[in-house]
Amino acid sequence: MSKSARLLPWVAATLLLGACATPQSRIDRNPDTFQSLTSEQQALVKQGKVAIGFSEAAVKLALGEPQRVIQRTDEKGKSIVWRYVDFDNGAAGGAVGGFYGANYFPGFAGYGAFGRPIGFYNGFYGPGVTTIYTGSGAEHERLRVVFVDGKVTAIDESIK
To answer: Tens of pLDDT along 22-56?
Structure first.
């Protein structure tokens, strides 16, 4: 097995753990930013919450990097909107490495883009790699944070 092939699982695990950062881990990496916040803001950041008046740095401590950033222009001027979204990966349960269908080779499975299971496909033209698609991959916005001049002016949360 090549050295790069042996490192691949460790790289994937590192990226996955980085994507799952908690407010505390972000605070630990940015203690000066955290100390610059008021005690009320610090309490909210520790809970992973934001409030009107937060700076961009405070929002990043509480929520992490946004998945989408857009610029909005309306009659009041320009604002920046950070969107935090979840993706429908369609995970249907089932065991990784299990048997997904008649043409699915059960000896290998993993997860590809957006958490979709992948494995070897033994179709008419011989073995190859395919994606077993089980969901829509649709975005579901859970939170939208609006900034004007670098400060939070509005927060939209999904409630249903």
So the answer is: 999 999 999 999 999 999 999 999 999 999 999 99
Q: pTM surpassing 0.90? A: no
Nearest to 151 by CA among 41, 73, 59: 59
- Spatial separation of the C-alpha atoms in residues 143 and 66, rounded to whole Å: 9
